[in-house]
Amino acid sequence: xxxxxxxxxxxxxxxxxxxxxxxxxxxxxxxxxxxxxxxxxxxxxxxxxxxxxxxxxxxxxxxxxxxxxxxxxxxxxxxxxxxxxxxxxxxxxxxxxxxxxxxxxxxxxxxxxxxxxxxxxxxxxxxxxxxxxxxxxxxxxxxxxxxxxxxxxxxxxxxxxxxxxxxxxxxxxxxxxxxxxxxxxxxxxxxxxxxxxxxxxxxxxxxxxxxxxxxxxxxxxxxxxxxxxxxxxxxxxxxxxxxxxxxxxxxxxxxxxxxx
Length: 260
What we know:
Keywords: Membrane, Transmembrane, Transmembrane helix. By secondary structure, the chain is of the alpha+beta class. It has 6 helices and 11 strands. The protein folds into 2 domains: 17-55; 58-254, Glutaredoxin (3-Layer(aba) Sandwich), CATH 3.40.30.10. It is elongated and about 100 Å long. The termini are far apart.
């Protein structure tokens, strides 16, 4: 014979334990929320750093402040390399008696000269690679022909050895200027220098989220690519895209102060 089951009695809940449990759940929820938010902020910060790093103009070297030497400008006035320190300046090698060798570069420089006319913190500097034959009178005639004038645009000469070493070793250009078959062979790329003497290059973004790469402002090469029909994948030619990156970089550098 079965024993009658005892009636079920509801468990008595301790209000203090319930409040304690609720408090712990609340604390865990808050801690989890803070953890998620902190992780999100850190992720966002890393993303911002990555984007800033990708957008930052590439630094490939720095002009030694001990590499000072004098130059003679197109009006026969003397100047020093250090006169450009603290400014943003673009510099390239030229042979004014061989205008075709820097045609693509010259067209870009003319637009930069117009865009930044009157700015005392921006300069264009063209070093003749043939200072023995292209004296200030020759440089002045070439400058006037294209409408380039001081103080914004310098055509300068110095000792041939100083100029060639400066272009190759300090500005990191591709080749040492030299003559071949009676013609000057040299790298006509534009080099961009910031206020702190850093040599800057373009950071070129890649399609499909690939890592960007640092490129020289070589407008002669860009013009060759355009002539060969090589596409950029955007609505700009190679020359237009490279000039866009140059101007974008100049704008960023002009907005930065000199590092104390």
